[in-house]
Every structure is written in C-alpha cells, then in structure tokens.
Specification:
Blueprint: E1 7-10, H1 14-25, E2 30-34, E3 47-49, H2 50-56, H3 62-66, E4 72-73, E5 76-80, E6 85-90, E7 101-103, H4 106-119, E8 125-126, E9 128-136, E10 139-146, E11 150-156, E12 159-161, H5 168-172, E13 179-181, E14 186-194, E15 201-207, E16 210-216, E17 221-227, H6 242-252, E18 258-268, E19 271-274, E20 279-280, E21 283-285, E22 291-292, H7 300-319, H8 329-353, H9 358-371, H10 377-385, E23 417-418, E24 421-422, E25 433-437, H11 452-456, E26 458-462, H12 467-472, E27 479-482, E28 488-492, H13 499-504
Parallel strand pairs: 1-2, 1-12, 2-8, 5-15, 12-21, 25-26
Antiparallel strand pairs: 3-7, 4-7, 5-6, 9-10, 10-11, 13-19, 14-17, 14-18, 15-16, 16-17, 19-22, 20-21, 23-24, 25-27, 27-28
Helix pairs in contact: 1-4, 1-7, 2-7, 7-8
This protein binds flavin-adenine dinucleotide.
Length: 507
C-alpha cells in the first residue's frame, strides 16, 4: 500500500541527515530527531571521499561542499620518521571532475547537509530522543521524549537507526555488536599551529614510540592524533594537555611545529564491530549504529553516508508501493560486505601503525621507503580510500548480461565526459536513468511497462562514439540503466532486456 506517513530517522549525525535529505529528495515524508541542542561543533571526520560526493551529487552537488570556506582539496599524504621524510603519496588527480578527497571538518559537512535539508522544508527536531519502541509486523510504536513537549507515543511504518555507536535502536532490538576492542589509548586535539606546511597534505610520523598523524582541519588548524600507548598503571588517561601534545610533537616528529592555541583535546579507544544484519523488519540500521572501527583511512562517516544513499531510494520505492519490501533486503546484502571490508581494512591499517617491535618497525620503514619510490602505491590506494572501487557485483540486483567493455551490473558508473560535461552533472534528478546510445532504434519509454517504477525511469540519449558509450561497451541503440545511487543496474540491447530488472524490484 502506498503511504505518505513519515519515516522516522533516529539521530541527526551525518548519516541521519543524509538519510533524511535523500528520502525527501525521493519524495518521502520524514521526521528526524536528536537529543542534542545543535549539530556537532567538532571536526571529527575530516575527509569527504570522492564516492560520497558522487553518490550525493544528484541532490547535493559536490560544488556545495567544495565552496565551503574551510574546504580544501586533499592532495595526498607524506610519510616520515622522527628524523626524515620517507616518501609522498599523491592522491588527487588533476582534471578529475570530483576530487579524490575533500578536506572538510565534520561540523561543516553536517552544516551543508542541514542547509540542504532546510531548503527541502525539513528541520531536525532537537532535544528530542527515542526511548522504548515496539517493532511489530505492521509498524513501530515509539516512545519519543521531547524537552519542549514531554513524552509522546507515535507510530511509524519505517524507522532508520542512525543514532551512532551507542545506538538506542540497536540496543532496543537486543542486537549483538560482535567484534573487538583495541587496548590502546589514542589522544587527539585540534590546534592552531605556527608553521608553513602545505595544508593539503596529511602527514604520518612513524616514531619508535608510536605514530603521530597530522591532518589539515580548516583555516590554519591542524588535527593531531597520537598513539598514547597501552592503558595501564603507568599510562596517563583522560584528555591530554596542550603541553603533552607539544612534547609529543617535539620528540616524535621532525616538524618543529609550535602549538599556538588548542580548540579540542580528547582521548578515544577503538572498537571494531559490525552488526550481523542491517535490516530488522521495518527497522534499518545505518552508519556507526551498524559498524564502528578505527579512524585509520577515514572511512566511518563516508561509509555511513553511502549506506544512507543506498537505502533511501529503495525505501522510497517501497513506501510509494512501487517496489516489494523485499527490495530492502538488498540494502543489507549490498552494504554489509562494504561495512565488513571497512572494519577489516581499517583494522589492518591501525595495527600496522601500532607496531612496537623495533625489528618490525624497521621492516615497515624499509618497505614503505621502497614502495613510496615506485608508482605502485597511489593507483591502488586511491580507489580504495576514495571508495570508488565499491561495487555490488554478483548480488541480487546485479543480474543480466555484462557490458561488452568489461563493466558489469553493480559497478559504479564512471563519471566521464559526455557532450562536454561530466555525466554526473546530467543525472541531477531523483529517479533512475536509462542511458541510450543514440540514435534510439525503438521507443524505450512506452515499452518498459506501465508500473510507476518503469514510468519514473528517465531516458537520456548519449553519443554512440563518445567516451562514455565506449567505456560502457554499448553501441547505437543499446542502453544502460543507472540506479539513483549511480551504480549500473543492468545492460540492455533492447527494451525487453530491462523487464527482468524492473520485475525483480517488484515494479
Ligand atoms: C576523532 C575522530 C576522527 C574521525 N575521523 C574520521 C574520518 O576522517 N573520516 C570518517 O569518515 N569518519 C571519521 N570518524 C568517524 C565519524 O565521526 C563517524 O563515523 C560519524 O560521525 C558517524 O555518523 P553517524 O551519523 O552514524 O553517527 P553520529 O555522528 O554519532 O550521530 C548519531 C546521532 O544520534 C543521536 N542520538 C543518539 N541517541 C539518540 C536517541 N535515543 N534518539 C535520537 N537521536 C539519538 C546523537 O545525538 C547523534 O547526533 C572520526 C571519528 C572520530 C571520533
């Protein structure tokens, strides 16, 4: 049954905000609640990677993030020991329509999402939190506590738990959060630093006593993260002092930097966990509520926002009655392996950074010195960090024939030039798009079937000899269906080839 009842989004961190924004973009009603009086003022996640910018681009063009006064293109990373520079990794690719990574404090990313959400007529309900809830076959009955209006009960057909690592939704569902905790204290701070280093490069200083990582964090600001050692009677705990961080800069790095002012001093401990299932009937988990891991690689917020983008178009189709609710199983099927990969890879990176054995440290330095002199690292690290290598091949929705040039259903649509513009700039609409290599040999629109889903697909002619058609491996009269999250749905030689995909969605 189609419905206009709002979907409840629990949590207005970056993931809840992205979910609310995309659901509105796809025409759904939403309520988004958060106990905090306002968005975070903290810099937390400092990099928005290319695939996050790409998947949001149809509704929130990447230029809006890039135009923020604190945004800078991430050029790469420099690896050092306490004595010398070992090498440099160049991540950005000049000429690419969307940068590999954009340095932007999480507070600014959230502000951009909030501004866009406001344009869509949605305000976050602040000082409002989810309490107990009952998850029945026909919906979720929620206790909602608002500081202004007191306690109330409300019924929703769908709920998204985007309420962070200590998720009330996850606890309310009595879910395990399997994984491990790392016995290591990490300290961090945001500082104004007296230095003239290029603020577009991250620096990692591999000292004998533990890594010091330095991230540009806005105008003249730097984030410093330091391995603070194994907690125990001999290790200190609690937030660090400015003097402690200055000492660590002096002894573990060769930067010569002097702290001028501190804005945030904190400590944290790393958990590596992921829930077994992202879908529990009418309740869906996204972001840190579903997966947590070390900040190594800067993937947490990015993975969460992409969870939200993947979920939103499917949930919108289901609530509008255009697709069967089983389509939502594909949210778990596609995104859980990505979350698991992120947990695993960030664990590898953090354990490599935490090595304490002098022999292993020496081997690490030698290996890095060698690798960073070659062309081997950047081409492998770039797609992995920027998440442009994510694909959903061999999943339920990625059926049908492969493209003639190697791309497959479930792959990311490459953002190539088409008639003088990157193709993503032409996809700034909510529905799926049918890219047809012109000239059309048949009237595709009238032959897709009469369902709402089929009617919502936007046909778009592309040049048959252009780079895009050649890369997709389609010839004149053939087509590629692109999902609203810019993954390839299916390849079609004729309009009839699209029917299985549309039927699979329940349309
Ligand atoms: C020091 C640090 C560095 C990091 N660096 C990076 C990085 O470089 N790149 C990266 O991608 N990630 C990074 N992260 C991780 C990133 O900050 C998180 O992954 C991201 O904030 C997760 O977003 P979220 O919306 O899932 O959860 P959160 O940001 O935690 O938001 C959850 C929201 O839910 C609300 N909430 C809680 N309980 C309730 C309730 N009962 N009812 C309603 N609302 C509720 C909370 O108030 C909160 O606003 C870093 C994190 C830290 C701490």
């Amino acid at each position: 049954m189609p419905t206009n009842k709002p979907i409840l989004i629990v949590g207005a961190g970056p993931v809840g905000l992205a979910a609310a924004h995309r659901l509105r973009w796809h025409g759904c009603g939403v309520r988004i609640i958060d106990p905090q009086a306002g968005p975070t003022a903290l810099s937390k996640a400092l990099v928005v990677w290319q695939r996050t910018l790409e998947t949001l681009d149809s509704s929130l063009p990447h230029e809006r993030f890039q135009q923020h006064k604190d945004a800078q293109i991430l050029q790469g990373a420099i690896v050092q020991t306490a004595q010398e520079t070992i090498g440099k990794i160049v991540l950005n690719q000049p000429g690419s329509p969307i940068p590999t990574g954009l340095l932007l404090p999480q507070s600014a990313t959230e502000a951009t999402l909030i501004e866009r959400l406001r344009e869509q007529g949605v305000e976050v309900e602040r000082k409002t939190s989810l309490g107990d809830f009952r998850n029945d076959a026909d919906g979720i009955t929620c206790q909602i506590h608002s500081e202004a209006e007191g306690d109330s009960e409300a019924h929703f057909l769908w709920m998204i738990g985007a309420d962070g690592a200590h998720s009330r939704v996850r606890h309310g569902l009595h879910l395990d959060f399997p994984g491990a905790s790392i016995e290591r204290r990490w300290i961090l701070g945001d500082f104004e630093i007296d230095q003239d280093f290029d603020p577009q490069f991250i620096q990692a200083c591999l000292s004998r006593d533990g890594i010091v990582a330095l991230f540009p964090a806005g105008r003249r600001r730097w984030r410093i993260i330091v391995d603070g050692g194994t907690p125990g009677p001999e290790a200190s705990s609690g937030p660090p002092t400015e003097t402690e961080i200055q000492n660590l800069l002096d002894t573990r790095t060769s930067t010569g930097w002097t702290i001028r002012e501190s804005f945030w001093l904190s400590e944290f401990f790393i958990n590596e966990r992921i829930v077994d299932n992202y879908r529990h009937g009418r309740i869906l988990l996204a972001g840190d509520a579903a997966h947590v891991h070390s900040p190594a690689g800067g993937q947490g917020m990015n993975t969460g926002i992409q969870d939200a983008v993947n979920l939103a178009w499917k949930l919108a189709l289901v609530t509008r009655g255009e697709a069967h609710p089983r389509l939502l199983d594909s949210y778990h099927e596609e995104r859980h392996p990505i979350g698991a990969r992120v947990v695993e890879n960030s664990s590898r990176m953090i354990h490599l950074a935490m090595l304490r054995s002098p022999v292993l440290q020496r081997i690490r330095t030698l290996l890095l010195r060698h690798l960073l002199r070659t062309d081997w690292v950047a081409p492998r690290l770039r797609p992995f960090l920027s998440e442009t290598d994510i694909h959903y091949r061999r999943t339920s929705l990625a059926q049908g024939t492969k493209g003639a040039a190697g791309l497959q259903p479930g792959d990311r649509l490459p953002n190539l030039q088409e008639a003088g513009k990157p193709i993503y700039e032409k996809l700034r609409h909510p529905g799926a798009t049918l890219l047809i290599a012109g000239p059309k040999k048949e009237d595709w629109s009238s032959r897709l079937g009469g369902s709402e889903l089929a009617r919502s697909i936007i046909p778009m002619e592309i040049q048959p000899q252009g780079l895009l058609a050649r890369t997709l491996g389609i010839q004149s009269g053939q087509a590629v269906l692109v999902r609203p999250d810019t993954y390839i749905g299916t390849f079609a030689r004729k309009s009839g080839d699209l029917r299985p995909w549309i039927e699979m969605m329940g349309g």
